[in-house]
């Protein structure tokens, strides 16, 4: 009986998994201080494009993102634009 219970509990856990994730970023200036900025995330694989604004300390938690490879662009007035990929 214990073997079946373990298998059933494991199976229930698998059904609870999601195809969504999150991305955490921190935008800083050259001195390492956090900056509020605009961050645009793009995934061409699932045609996702969303622009976020970081908090005053430069933190961003983008939640509920479909699993994919993302490119991002960070912009802030007075600084050059940063792009990955």
Helix content: 10-25%
**Broad structural category:** alpha+beta
Main-sheet strand order equals: 3-2-5-6
Return the average pLDDT rounded to an integer: 83
Number of helices: 1
User: Any idea what the shape is?
Assistant: globular
β-sheet strand percentage: 35-45%
Rg, rounded, reads 19 Å
Q: Write down how many β-strands occur, each being a DSSP E stretch of 2 or more residues.
A: 6
From the N-terminal CA to the C-terminal CA, the straight-line distance is 52 Å
Poorly predicted ranges = 1-13
Largest sheet: 4 strands, antiparallel
How would you spell out the order of helices and strands? HEEEEEE
Structure description:
The chain is α+β, with helices and mostly antiparallel strands and 85 residues long. It has a domain at 20-76. Helices cover 16% and strands 40% of the residues. The protein has one helix spanning 2-15, and strands at residues 20-26, 38-43, 48-53, 59-66, 71-75, 82-83. The relative contact order is 0.23.
Keywords summarizing the entry:
two-stranded antiparallel sheet, globular, 4-stranded antiparallel β-sheet, disordered N terminus, 85 residues, alpha+beta, 1 helix
């Amino acid at each position: 009986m214990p073997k079946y219970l373990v298998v059933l509990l494991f199976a229930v856990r698998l059904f609870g998994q999601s195809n969504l994730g999150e991305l955490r970023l921190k935008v800083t200036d050259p001195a390492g201080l956090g900056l509020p900025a605009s961050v645009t995330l793009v995934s061409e694989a699932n045609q996702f494009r969303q622009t976020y604004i970081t908090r005053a300390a430069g933190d961003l938690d983008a939640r509920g993102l479909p699993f994919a490879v993302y490119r991002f662009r960070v912009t802030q007035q007075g600084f050059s634009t940063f792009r990955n990929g």
